[in-house]
Design goal:
Length: 402
Protein backbone atom coordinates (compact mmCIF):
# COMPACT_ATOMS: atom_id res chain seq x y z
CA UNK A 1 0.00 0.00 0.00
CA UNK A 2 1.69 3.20 -1.07
CA UNK A 3 -0.66 6.03 -1.86
CA UNK A 4 1.14 8.34 0.50
CA UNK A 5 4.59 7.26 -0.54
CA UNK A 6 5.16 4.79 2.30
CA UNK A 7 5.06 1.02 2.29
CA UNK A 8 3.50 -0.39 5.42
CA UNK A 9 2.52 -3.90 6.45
CA UNK A 10 -1.04 -4.58 5.52
CA UNK A 11 -2.21 -6.54 8.55
CA UNK A 12 -5.61 -4.95 8.73
CA UNK A 13 -7.44 -8.20 8.13
CA UNK A 14 -9.55 -9.11 11.09
CA UNK A 15 -9.47 -12.61 12.43
CA UNK A 16 -11.59 -13.21 15.48
CA UNK A 17 -10.64 -16.19 17.54
CA UNK A 18 -13.07 -15.80 20.40
CA UNK A 19 -10.77 -13.27 22.06
CA UNK A 20 -11.87 -9.65 22.17
CA UNK A 21 -9.37 -8.11 19.80
CA UNK A 22 -7.71 -4.77 20.40
CA UNK A 23 -8.91 -2.50 17.64
CA UNK A 24 -7.37 0.64 16.20
CA UNK A 25 -10.18 3.07 15.60
CA UNK A 26 -10.19 6.52 14.04
CA UNK A 27 -12.93 8.77 15.40
CA UNK A 28 -14.05 11.99 13.77
CA UNK A 29 -16.56 14.36 15.29
CA UNK A 30 -17.31 18.03 15.80
CA UNK A 31 -14.93 18.79 18.66
CA UNK A 32 -16.97 21.59 20.18
CA UNK A 33 -19.87 21.52 22.63
CA UNK A 34 -22.54 19.75 20.54
CA UNK A 35 -24.05 16.53 21.79
CA UNK A 36 -22.55 14.44 19.00
CA UNK A 37 -19.02 15.56 19.90
CA UNK A 38 -19.64 14.70 23.53
CA UNK A 39 -20.95 11.25 22.64
CA UNK A 40 -18.00 10.59 20.30
CA UNK A 41 -15.43 11.75 22.83
CA UNK A 42 -16.92 9.79 25.72
CA UNK A 43 -17.09 6.73 23.48
CA UNK A 44 -13.43 7.13 22.51
CA UNK A 45 -12.42 7.49 26.15
CA UNK A 46 -14.36 4.40 27.16
CA UNK A 47 -12.98 2.36 24.26
CA UNK A 48 -9.44 3.44 25.16
CA UNK A 49 -10.04 2.34 28.74
CA UNK A 50 -11.12 -1.02 27.41
CA UNK A 51 -7.74 -1.37 25.67
CA UNK A 52 -8.46 -0.16 22.15
CA UNK A 53 -6.22 2.34 20.40
CA UNK A 54 -8.17 5.48 19.59
CA UNK A 55 -7.19 8.18 17.09
CA UNK A 56 -9.28 11.34 17.08
CA UNK A 57 -9.07 13.16 13.74
CA UNK A 58 -10.56 16.64 13.75
CA UNK A 59 -9.81 20.35 13.37
CA UNK A 60 -9.46 20.83 17.13
CA UNK A 61 -8.97 18.63 20.14
CA UNK A 62 -12.37 17.42 21.39
CA UNK A 63 -13.34 19.53 24.35
CA UNK A 64 -13.58 16.73 26.89
CA UNK A 65 -10.12 15.37 26.10
CA UNK A 66 -7.26 16.47 28.30
CA UNK A 67 -4.64 15.14 25.90
CA UNK A 68 -2.90 12.83 28.34
CA UNK A 69 -5.22 9.83 28.40
CA UNK A 70 -3.62 6.45 27.68
CA UNK A 71 -4.41 4.82 24.30
CA UNK A 72 -5.69 8.13 22.91
CA UNK A 73 -4.09 10.03 20.06
CA UNK A 74 -5.20 13.27 18.51
CA UNK A 75 -4.47 14.27 14.90
CA UNK A 76 -5.27 17.82 13.93
CA UNK A 77 -6.61 18.57 10.48
CA UNK A 78 -4.92 21.62 8.97
CA UNK A 79 -6.96 23.48 6.39
CA UNK A 80 -4.91 25.63 4.08
CA UNK A 81 -6.09 29.22 3.76
CA UNK A 82 -5.06 29.94 0.19
CA UNK A 83 -6.55 33.33 -0.85
CA UNK A 84 -8.50 31.70 -3.66
CA UNK A 85 -10.43 29.63 -1.14
CA UNK A 86 -13.40 31.71 -0.03
CA UNK A 87 -14.60 28.40 1.38
CA UNK A 88 -11.57 26.42 2.64
CA UNK A 89 -12.16 22.74 1.74
CA UNK A 90 -12.18 21.17 5.20
CA UNK A 91 -13.85 18.00 3.92
CA UNK A 92 -10.91 17.34 1.58
CA UNK A 93 -8.27 18.12 4.19
CA UNK A 94 -10.12 15.79 6.57
CA UNK A 95 -10.28 12.98 3.99
CA UNK A 96 -6.55 13.31 3.36
CA UNK A 97 -5.75 13.25 7.08
CA UNK A 98 -8.04 10.26 7.62
CA UNK A 99 -6.24 8.30 4.91
CA UNK A 100 -2.80 9.32 6.24
CA UNK A 101 -3.61 8.39 9.83
CA UNK A 102 -5.24 5.13 8.77
CA UNK A 103 -2.14 4.17 6.84
CA UNK A 104 0.46 5.37 9.33
CA UNK A 105 -1.22 3.77 12.34
CA UNK A 106 -2.77 0.85 10.52
CA UNK A 107 -6.31 1.66 11.62
CA UNK A 108 -8.94 -1.05 11.47
CA UNK A 109 -11.81 1.32 10.83
CA UNK A 110 -13.09 4.86 10.99
CA UNK A 111 -16.09 5.87 13.03
CA UNK A 112 -17.56 9.23 12.05
CA UNK A 113 -20.11 11.07 14.14
CA UNK A 114 -22.55 13.35 12.33
CA UNK A 115 -23.00 12.55 8.67
CA UNK A 116 -22.19 15.95 7.20
CA UNK A 117 -19.45 16.21 6.01
CA UNK A 118 -17.68 13.47 7.97
CA UNK A 119 -19.13 10.46 6.18
CA UNK A 120 -18.29 11.99 2.80
CA UNK A 121 -14.67 12.53 3.91
CA UNK A 122 -14.51 8.95 5.23
CA UNK A 123 -15.84 7.67 1.93
CA UNK A 124 -13.08 9.55 0.09
CA UNK A 125 -10.44 8.22 2.49
CA UNK A 126 -11.69 4.67 1.94
CA UNK A 127 -11.50 5.14 -1.81
CA UNK A 128 -8.00 6.64 -1.62
CA UNK A 129 -6.71 3.68 0.37
CA UNK A 130 -8.51 1.13 -1.75
CA UNK A 131 -6.78 2.17 -4.96
CA UNK A 132 -3.58 0.67 -6.21
CA UNK A 133 -2.11 -2.83 -6.43
CA UNK A 134 -1.82 -3.35 -2.66
CA UNK A 135 -5.02 -1.56 -1.82
CA UNK A 136 -6.84 -2.28 1.40
CA UNK A 137 -10.36 -1.59 2.46
CA UNK A 138 -10.73 0.84 5.32
CA UNK A 139 -14.32 0.41 6.49
CA UNK A 140 -16.18 3.30 8.06
CA UNK A 141 -19.14 3.50 10.39
CA UNK A 142 -21.41 6.55 10.35
CA UNK A 143 -23.40 7.48 13.43
CA UNK A 144 -26.39 9.73 12.82
CA UNK A 145 -27.10 12.12 15.66
CA UNK A 146 -30.06 14.23 14.73
CA UNK A 147 -29.72 17.56 13.06
CA UNK A 148 -27.49 15.96 10.40
CA UNK A 149 -30.73 14.28 9.30
CA UNK A 150 -33.59 16.38 10.63
CA UNK A 151 -32.30 19.81 9.64
CA UNK A 152 -29.08 19.96 7.68
CA UNK A 153 -29.57 16.77 5.72
CA UNK A 154 -32.94 17.93 4.46
CA UNK A 155 -31.44 21.00 2.86
CA UNK A 156 -31.58 20.17 -0.87
CA UNK A 157 -27.94 21.11 -1.29
CA UNK A 158 -26.87 18.45 1.22
CA UNK A 159 -29.51 15.76 0.89
CA UNK A 160 -28.24 13.78 -2.13
CA UNK A 161 -24.65 13.60 -0.91
CA UNK A 162 -25.72 12.75 2.64
CA UNK A 163 -27.96 9.97 1.36
CA UNK A 164 -25.11 8.71 -0.83
CA UNK A 165 -22.56 8.66 1.98
CA UNK A 166 -25.01 6.88 4.30
CA UNK A 167 -25.67 4.26 1.65
CA UNK A 168 -21.93 3.86 1.07
CA UNK A 169 -21.06 3.48 4.76
CA UNK A 170 -19.95 0.03 5.91
CA UNK A 171 -22.15 0.43 8.94
CA UNK A 172 -24.71 3.00 10.06
CA UNK A 173 -25.99 3.57 13.56
CA UNK A 174 -28.60 5.99 14.88
CA UNK A 175 -29.03 7.18 18.43
CA UNK A 176 -32.74 6.35 18.69
CA UNK A 177 -35.48 4.40 16.98
CA UNK A 178 -37.06 7.70 16.09
CA UNK A 179 -33.96 8.81 14.17
CA UNK A 180 -33.53 5.46 12.43
CA UNK A 181 -37.16 5.42 11.28
CA UNK A 182 -37.04 9.01 10.16
CA UNK A 183 -33.82 8.46 8.20
CA UNK A 184 -35.21 5.42 6.44
CA UNK A 185 -38.45 7.23 5.64
CA UNK A 186 -37.24 10.66 4.62
CA UNK A 187 -33.92 9.74 3.02
CA UNK A 188 -35.20 6.56 1.47
CA UNK A 189 -31.88 4.85 2.17
CA UNK A 190 -31.63 1.10 1.72
CA UNK A 191 -29.07 0.60 4.43
CA UNK A 192 -29.74 -1.34 7.59
CA UNK A 193 -29.46 1.09 10.49
CA UNK A 194 -28.58 -0.19 13.94
CA UNK A 195 -29.91 1.75 16.92
CA UNK A 196 -27.31 2.32 19.63
CA UNK A 197 -28.54 4.77 22.23
CA UNK A 198 -26.56 7.65 23.68
CA UNK A 199 -24.87 6.71 26.91
CA UNK A 200 -23.60 8.24 30.10
CA UNK A 201 -20.74 7.27 32.38
CA UNK A 202 -22.71 6.33 35.49
CA UNK A 203 -19.61 6.64 37.70
CA UNK A 204 -18.92 10.26 36.75
CA UNK A 205 -22.50 11.41 36.34
CA UNK A 206 -23.76 11.09 39.88
CA UNK A 207 -25.42 13.28 42.44
CA UNK A 208 -22.76 15.69 43.64
CA UNK A 209 -21.80 14.44 47.12
CA UNK A 210 -21.33 18.07 48.21
CA UNK A 211 -24.63 19.19 46.71
CA UNK A 212 -26.02 20.68 49.93
CA UNK A 213 -22.96 22.85 50.41
CA UNK A 214 -22.44 23.76 46.74
CA UNK A 215 -26.06 24.82 46.25
CA UNK A 216 -25.40 27.73 48.58
CA UNK A 217 -23.32 29.38 45.88
CA UNK A 218 -26.51 29.95 43.88
CA UNK A 219 -29.28 29.39 46.41
CA UNK A 220 -28.12 30.94 49.65
CA UNK A 221 -31.59 30.92 51.17
CA UNK A 222 -32.47 27.34 50.33
CA UNK A 223 -34.16 28.13 47.01
CA UNK A 224 -34.95 25.32 44.57
CA UNK A 225 -32.61 24.87 41.61
CA UNK A 226 -33.69 24.41 38.02
CA UNK A 227 -31.12 23.84 35.29
CA UNK A 228 -30.92 23.91 31.51
CA UNK A 229 -28.01 22.60 29.44
CA UNK A 230 -27.63 23.11 25.70
CA UNK A 231 -25.91 24.94 22.86
CA UNK A 232 -28.59 27.68 22.99
CA UNK A 233 -29.67 27.12 19.40
CA UNK A 234 -33.24 27.95 18.29
CA UNK A 235 -34.16 24.23 18.35
CA UNK A 236 -33.62 24.28 22.14
CA UNK A 237 -36.32 26.97 22.66
CA UNK A 238 -34.37 28.84 25.31
CA UNK A 239 -37.17 31.43 25.57
CA UNK A 240 -39.46 28.65 26.75
CA UNK A 241 -36.95 27.85 29.48
CA UNK A 242 -37.24 31.44 30.72
CA UNK A 243 -41.05 31.39 30.37
CA UNK A 244 -41.29 28.18 32.41
CA UNK A 245 -38.90 29.44 35.06
CA UNK A 246 -40.79 32.75 35.32
CA UNK A 247 -44.00 30.85 36.16
CA UNK A 248 -42.23 28.62 38.69
CA UNK A 249 -40.40 31.54 40.25
CA UNK A 250 -43.68 33.37 40.89
CA UNK A 251 -44.80 30.54 43.15
CA UNK A 252 -41.64 28.99 44.54
CA UNK A 253 -38.38 30.64 45.64
CA UNK A 254 -36.03 29.31 43.00
CA UNK A 255 -33.00 29.91 40.81
CA UNK A 256 -32.21 28.92 37.25
CA UNK A 257 -28.78 27.72 36.11
CA UNK A 258 -28.13 27.97 32.38
CA UNK A 259 -25.16 25.88 31.24
CA UNK A 260 -23.86 26.45 27.71
CA UNK A 261 -23.76 29.28 25.24
CA UNK A 262 -24.89 30.02 21.73
CA UNK A 263 -26.88 32.28 19.45
CA UNK A 264 -30.01 32.63 21.63
CA UNK A 265 -28.21 33.69 24.78
CA UNK A 266 -28.85 37.42 24.46
CA UNK A 267 -32.55 36.86 23.70
CA UNK A 268 -32.79 34.86 26.92
CA UNK A 269 -30.89 37.51 28.84
CA UNK A 270 -33.25 40.23 27.65
CA UNK A 271 -36.33 38.16 28.32
CA UNK A 272 -35.22 37.53 31.89
CA UNK A 273 -34.50 41.25 32.34
CA UNK A 274 -37.98 42.13 31.01
CA UNK A 275 -39.58 39.68 33.40
CA UNK A 276 -37.62 41.01 36.35
CA UNK A 277 -35.98 37.66 37.13
CA UNK A 278 -32.51 38.32 35.77
CA UNK A 279 -30.92 38.27 39.22
CA UNK A 280 -32.17 34.73 39.73
CA UNK A 281 -30.97 33.42 36.37
CA UNK A 282 -27.30 32.40 36.35
CA UNK A 283 -25.62 32.15 32.97
CA UNK A 284 -22.73 29.79 33.69
CA UNK A 285 -21.39 29.58 30.14
CA UNK A 286 -19.76 26.48 28.68
CA UNK A 287 -18.60 24.00 31.28
CA UNK A 288 -16.17 21.13 30.83
CA UNK A 289 -17.40 19.15 33.81
CA UNK A 290 -21.15 19.59 33.44
CA UNK A 291 -21.86 16.88 36.00
CA UNK A 292 -20.52 19.13 38.78
CA UNK A 293 -23.32 21.66 38.21
CA UNK A 294 -26.00 19.24 37.05
CA UNK A 295 -25.50 17.16 40.15
CA UNK A 296 -26.66 19.88 42.52
CA UNK A 297 -29.95 20.76 40.79
CA UNK A 298 -33.53 19.56 41.34
CA UNK A 299 -35.08 19.76 37.88
CA UNK A 300 -33.78 19.96 34.30
CA UNK A 301 -35.81 21.88 31.72
CA UNK A 302 -35.49 20.64 28.13
CA UNK A 303 -38.37 22.19 26.14
CA UNK A 304 -36.76 21.52 22.73
CA UNK A 305 -38.54 21.75 19.42
CA UNK A 306 -36.90 18.45 18.52
CA UNK A 307 -34.43 16.03 20.09
CA UNK A 308 -33.44 12.80 18.45
CA UNK A 309 -32.43 11.54 21.86
CA UNK A 310 -31.81 14.30 24.40
CA UNK A 311 -28.39 13.59 25.89
CA UNK A 312 -28.78 16.46 28.38
CA UNK A 313 -31.83 14.75 29.88
CA UNK A 314 -29.92 11.50 30.28
CA UNK A 315 -26.96 13.24 31.91
CA UNK A 316 -29.37 14.94 34.31
CA UNK A 317 -31.17 11.70 35.11
CA UNK A 318 -27.88 10.01 36.00
CA UNK A 319 -27.29 12.89 38.43
CA UNK A 320 -30.74 12.37 40.04
CA UNK A 321 -32.15 15.49 38.44
CA UNK A 322 -35.72 15.08 37.19
CA UNK A 323 -36.16 16.10 33.52
CA UNK A 324 -39.19 18.04 32.34
CA UNK A 325 -39.07 17.90 28.56
CA UNK A 326 -41.06 17.95 25.37
CA UNK A 327 -42.70 14.89 23.85
CA UNK A 328 -40.70 15.07 20.65
CA UNK A 329 -38.41 12.89 18.53
CA UNK A 330 -36.65 10.22 20.57
CA UNK A 331 -37.25 11.82 23.98
CA UNK A 332 -40.07 9.40 24.95
CA UNK A 333 -37.56 6.55 24.45
CA UNK A 334 -35.50 8.08 27.26
CA UNK A 335 -38.02 9.57 29.71
CA UNK A 336 -41.04 7.65 30.93
CA UNK A 337 -43.74 10.22 31.58
CA UNK A 338 -44.73 10.39 35.24
CA UNK A 339 -42.07 7.89 36.31
CA UNK A 340 -38.61 9.19 35.47
CA UNK A 341 -39.65 12.69 34.40
CA UNK A 342 -42.45 14.59 32.69
CA UNK A 343 -43.31 15.20 29.05
CA UNK A 344 -45.46 17.91 27.48
CA UNK A 345 -46.19 19.22 24.00
CA UNK A 346 -43.70 21.55 22.35
CA UNK A 347 -44.43 25.13 23.41
CA UNK A 348 -46.76 24.16 26.27
CA UNK A 349 -44.89 26.16 28.91
CA UNK A 350 -47.92 26.22 31.23
CA UNK A 351 -48.00 22.45 31.58
CA UNK A 352 -44.24 22.17 32.00
CA UNK A 353 -44.28 24.90 34.67
CA UNK A 354 -47.19 23.09 36.36
CA UNK A 355 -45.18 19.86 36.56
CA UNK A 356 -42.19 21.71 38.01
CA UNK A 357 -44.32 23.45 40.65
CA UNK A 358 -46.03 20.19 41.60
CA UNK A 359 -42.69 18.43 42.04
CA UNK A 360 -40.97 21.23 43.90
CA UNK A 361 -43.90 21.39 46.32
CA UNK A 362 -43.66 17.69 47.05
CA UNK A 363 -40.23 16.76 48.38
CA UNK A 364 -41.03 13.06 48.60
CA UNK A 365 -42.29 12.84 45.00
CA UNK A 366 -39.25 14.77 43.77
CA UNK A 367 -36.98 12.36 45.62
CA UNK A 368 -38.80 9.27 44.27
CA UNK A 369 -38.66 10.49 40.67
CA UNK A 370 -35.02 11.54 40.99
CA UNK A 371 -34.13 8.03 42.14
CA UNK A 372 -36.26 6.50 39.35
CA UNK A 373 -34.46 8.69 36.81
CA UNK A 374 -31.08 7.50 38.06
CA UNK A 375 -32.36 3.92 37.96
CA UNK A 376 -33.34 4.23 34.29
CA UNK A 377 -29.97 5.75 33.40
CA UNK A 378 -28.21 2.89 35.16
CA UNK A 379 -30.37 0.12 33.80
CA UNK A 380 -30.49 1.19 30.15
CA UNK A 381 -27.97 3.85 29.25
CA UNK A 382 -24.73 3.40 31.20
CA UNK A 383 -21.59 3.42 29.05
CA UNK A 384 -20.76 0.03 30.49
CA UNK A 385 -23.85 -1.30 28.67
CA UNK A 386 -23.70 0.79 25.49
CA UNK A 387 -19.97 0.75 24.63
CA UNK A 388 -19.89 -3.05 24.22
CA UNK A 389 -22.68 -2.63 21.66
CA UNK A 390 -20.35 -0.45 19.58
CA UNK A 391 -17.51 -2.96 19.99
CA UNK A 392 -19.77 -5.73 18.81
CA UNK A 393 -20.95 -3.61 15.91
CA UNK A 394 -17.36 -2.82 14.85
CA UNK A 395 -16.59 -6.52 14.88
CA UNK A 396 -19.47 -7.28 12.60
CA UNK A 397 -18.46 -4.51 10.21
CA UNK A 398 -14.86 -5.75 10.17
CA UNK A 399 -15.94 -9.30 9.57
CA UNK A 400 -18.12 -8.23 6.68
CA UNK A 401 -15.30 -6.10 5.20
CA UNK A 402 -12.47 -8.59 5.46
O1 LIG B 1 -28.72 19.59 19.19
C1 LIG B 1 -27.60 19.46 19.67
O2 LIG B 1 -27.34 19.60 20.85
C2 LIG B 1 -26.49 19.14 18.76
C3 LIG B 1 -26.62 17.80 18.17
C4 LIG B 1 -25.28 17.30 17.79
O3 LIG B 1 -25.25 16.43 16.96
O4 LIG B 1 -24.24 17.74 18.25
O5 LIG B 1 -27.32 16.93 19.08
C5 LIG B 1 -27.93 15.79 18.57
O6 LIG B 1 -27.09 14.72 19.02
C6 LIG B 1 -27.14 14.45 20.42
C7 LIG B 1 -26.13 13.35 20.72
O7 LIG B 1 -26.38 12.20 20.00
C8 LIG B 1 -28.58 14.05 20.79
O8 LIG B 1 -28.65 13.68 22.16
C9 LIG B 1 -29.49 15.26 20.52
O9 LIG B 1 -30.84 14.89 20.79
C10 LIG B 1 -29.37 15.64 19.04
N1 LIG B 1 -30.09 16.92 18.84
C11 LIG B 1 -31.17 17.00 18.08
O10 LIG B 1 -31.70 16.04 17.54
C12 LIG B 1 -31.77 18.36 17.95
Amino acid sequence: MCILGYFLPSNYQTVWKGEPRRMKIGITCYPTYGGSGVVATELGLELAQRGHEIHFISYAQPIRLRGEEPNIHYHEVEVSRYPLFDYPPYDLALATRMAEVAQLYDLDLLHVHYAIPHSVSALLARQMLGDGPRGRRLPFVTTLHGTDITLVGLDRSYLPITRYSIDQSDGVTAISNYLRDRTLRVFDVKKEIQVIYNSVNCDFYVRNPNAAQLRQEYALNGEKLLVHLSNFRPVKRLSDVIEIFDRVHKQIPSKLLLIGDGPDRSVAEWLSVQKGIHADVHFLGKQDQVQDKLGIADILLMPSELESFGLAALEAMACEVVPIATRTGGVPEVIEHGVSGYLADVGDVETMAGYAIELLNDESKLHTMAKAARGVAQARFCSSKIVPQYEEYYRRVLERSS
